[in-house]
């Protein structure tokens, strides 16, 4: 380092200390060097106290040189601290924090619900399969007999990535993806995430889970569908639960229906959960529309089948008395640990 004033006889001392400063590799060591040389008991202070013994005509130079030495070393130390601080990673560990190791994680209620529903369908002979979350408008709409003008395709009701791609709004997409790959029979359920830009409130979220189901074979009837879905609702909600079907409309099934179960809180008598009508809507279903079969080259002379779709969050909320869908995604351990 270039010095502003000469330091005369202190040159050697300067060289020694300067080398030590240069060698510091961590900012924690700076204080040690500082107190060794520049602190109250440091060697420079001893030199200052020797001033008294210096002959009067040399005092001024001695003082100036010693001050120059001290200031230069201080500046070097400050610069060293700056360079070390910028290169050192912050210390992230707080060793006083309680260990995380003693709090093992567990399966999320939604994963458990999906597993429980899937198991019921597996015992009925259904396989489990999955489809992609980024879909084309063909699989999400056209292939499912949802016309170009249908309100469900609106830009503000879907997460479009461009005019042909979107985050799927339903798991019905998997119907087409499976059926186009092979000949019937098919019997599968397909759980997964779906996305809709709904305003978030106690019963809406911009992402949720559905399970789609499909059964296609020779002579599959509406009665088969009723049997399978009754098995599901009794298996999942309990034997005492009654089911009923209401006519409905879905573009990809004909005829279509919605299934309600008798309210699990009031047993059908009427309460706030069932809005005092005794029934809770749990899923949509129907016989697969011939227009869908024709897209995937399934011969409707030979085969028939049914499909259904249910919302996992809704069903878990009904079963466990959860009143706000947001609880699933906040991941507050106090909520999750209850299940
Ligand atoms: N995809 C429908 C929805 O998101 C649910 C549904 C209804 C699926 C009827 C089906 C079905 O397979 O047959 O609202």
Describe the structure.
- It is a single chain.
- The chain has 339 residues and is an alpha+beta fold.
- It has 2 domains: 2-87, no CATH class; 109-336, 2-Layer Sandwich (BirA Bifunctional Protein, domain 2).
- 37% of the residues lie in helices and 20% in strands.
- It contains 12 helices and 10 strands.
- It has helices at residues 11-23, 30-37, 43-49, 56-87, 109-123, 137-140, 173-179, 222-237, 290-295, 312-320, 327-330, 333-336; strands spanning 127-128, 134-136, 159-160, 165-167, 186-195, 207-217, 243-250, 253-262, 279-288, 304-311.
- A 7-stranded mixed beta sheet has the order 1-5-6-10-9-8-7, sandwiched between helices. It has a 3-stranded antiparallel beta sheet with strand order 2-4-3.
- Helix 5 crosses helix 8.
- 27% of the residues are buried.
- 3,4-dihydroxyphenylalanine binds at residues 170, 172, 212, 250, 253, 284-286, 307-309.
> Rounded to an integer, what's the Rg over CA atoms?
38 Å
Mean pLDDT: 92
Counted by DSSP, the helix tally is 12
| DSSP summary, beta strand count | 10
The amount of beta strand, in percent, is 15-25%
Count structural domains.
Answer: 2
Any idea what the CATH superfamily of the largest domain is called?
Bira Bifunctional Protein, Domain 2
The shape, in one word, is elongated
Low-confidence stretches: none
Q: Would you tell me which CATH topology of the largest domain applies?
A: BirA Bifunctional Protein, domain 2
List each distinct ligand once: 3,4-dihydroxyphenylalanine
What distance lies between the first and last C-alpha atoms, to the nearest angstrom? 68 Å
For the biggest sheet, the summary is: 7 strands, mixed
Secondary structural class: alpha+beta
